[in-house]
Amino acid sequence: xxxxxxxxxxxxxxxxxxxxxxxxxxxxxxxxxxxxxxxxxxxxxxxxxxxxxxxxxxxxxxxxxxxxxxxxxxxxxxxxxxxxxxxxxxxxxxxxxxxxxxxxxxxxxxxxxxxxxxxxxxxxxxxxxxxxxxxxxxxxxxxxxxxxxxxxxxxxxxxxxxxxxxxxxxxxxxxxxxxxx
Length: 181
Ligand code: FES
Ligand code: FES
Hints:
6 helices; alpha+beta; globular; binds FE2/S2 (inorganic) cluster; DNA polymerase, domain 1; Ubiquitin-like (UB roll)
């Protein structure tokens, strides 16, 4: 079969990457093999396990099911984009605090699904968390600690960050309440 290549521009963790990619390559393959972002894991490569989850334009997507050319011009966040330098994201801190990481293979996908949830709903109830994370499989933890960790992160970044943002906004006239997340 004659495989075609196309030029794409991917905006990954705030950096623009111009690449020529085969039309048969998934976003997952390009992130890992071309950009060296191996934090995103391949499990089933068939849309069943969630371990390849990244955020594209604010929504959690399975990067094994998105073709690289479909991501052209879109903003993508991978697990490498979570921490701010050496400062872990509150979700990462909470996963460690709650013992929600064992072998760690599912963890990048779990974190990205959880981030998409908390970005959309900073104070989800437990059932909402379970539903949002239901596409992410874990063979080690039994899930309870992961749900606890997401709840813990929501407590860290939800009301507190809203209050901080409101206070900062009142002081400076700024509307960037979510800044610093
Ligand atoms: S590797 Fe993408 S859903 Fe399993
Ligand atoms: S921690 Fe091992 S698969 Fe989830």
